Amino acid sequence: MTDLPMPDVRPANPRFSSGPCAKRPGWSLEALHDAALGRSHRAKTGKTKLAQAIDLTREVLQVPADHRIAIVPASDTGAVEMALWSLLGERGVDMLAWESFGSGWVTDVIKQLKLEDVRKFEAPYGELPDLRRADFSRDVVFTWNGTTSGVRVPDGEWIAADRSGLTICDATSAAFAQRLPLDKLDVVTFSWQKVLGGEAAHGMLILSPRAVERLESYTPAWPLPKIFRLTKSDGKGGGKLIEGIFKGETINTPSMLAVEDYLDALNWAKSVGGLDGLIGRANANLGVIEAFVDKSPWLGFLAKTDATCSNTSVCLSITDPQIAALDADAQAAFAKGMVSVLEAEGVAFDIGAYRDAPPGLRIWTGGTIEKADLEALMPWLDWAYQRQKSGLKQAA
Q1: Which residue of 93, 148, 153, 155 has the lowest C-beta tally within 10 Å?
Q2: How confident is the model at residue 391 (pLDDT cuts 50, 70, 90)?
Q3: What is the reported pLDDT for 314?
Q4: 79 — pLDDT class (breaks 50, 70, 90)
Q5: Which residue intervals of the chain bear CATH 3.40.640.10?
Q6: Is residue 1 scored above 50 in pLDDT?
Q7: Which part of the chain has CATH 3.90.1150.10?
């Protein structure tokens, strides 16, 4: 079907999914042999491991000593929802969105929380809204890295250091791969199954002293389910932070198997140079795709500028004019055909664009991905593209 020969070299690990993401290199079930299975998470062993997970998160992610870190239910989604429902409503809020998850937070704030003083700043896939329009006398909610668009904020220069509102940042595909200015972020959330390749269902919530102050001085007008409650009554009409949550005394029962896996991932992260090492690995991985795209006549980044291109969830568009001229359904079918043949060959799993995103490819390049595997994958993209293109010509 194509004159381009099938490449000789295959990626050793074809797992390029953007979530759950690839396990760290060399991982096996043996890494979980010390998991506290069949034990209470409230027993000394369980509490010690949970506290370890928090302490290692602080060390690897370089979280300031005065910030609280909690393990919370329901992955990154649960952590974001906990923040939105617990903290918003004290003042107006600016919502920034440029892909599906950010748009989801806009919907929750407007239609579920039903806040009245909400400003939306949105941009299409591939672009960022005008960050300068954010008013930091208000609360500001945004994703750091758009997992489904491959677009990230370039830095934290646009965030006011003297803000009076809170910054609430969904950083799930940025944490451990991009440098987060934690002095300018009052709430940071992420999940274990993203950059470090942990298992699902557990989220992380990082609170600045300013966020804690809001929690203890402001009570939302709506009821909070137990799973969201971070404070308890102080008996004086106010609230007091439940400190145990930030020491590993989780709100609900965590999987100790998943905890062990997260500990393994964090220790591996330390072994490759901690945060700097992880960022370096992700940047080098992005570099492989950049070099390929630079030479490709048919492929381009969904991100419109280099400065905003993600180094984890890399989203690619098929730029061949003949394919771009097809209707949306036909473009999607072309990209899905490439994805299917690559999966059938055992070369790349789960690299299709997110369902709400423009048709194309999405390749995970976070720190658990080996550069050599991406280098091996690139010729296969050419092969799959040529195969699909040949099929179009035959159909015509």
Answers
A1: 155
A2: confident
A3: 98
A4: very high
A5: 29-269
A6: no
A7: 274-395
Fold held by 29-269:
Aspartate Aminotransferase; domain 2 (3.40.640)
The CATH number that domain 274-395 falls under is 3.90.1150.10
Instruction: Quote the tokens at residue 82.
Output: 């906990």
**Distance (Å) of CA 47 to CA 40, 236, 243:** 9, 31, 14
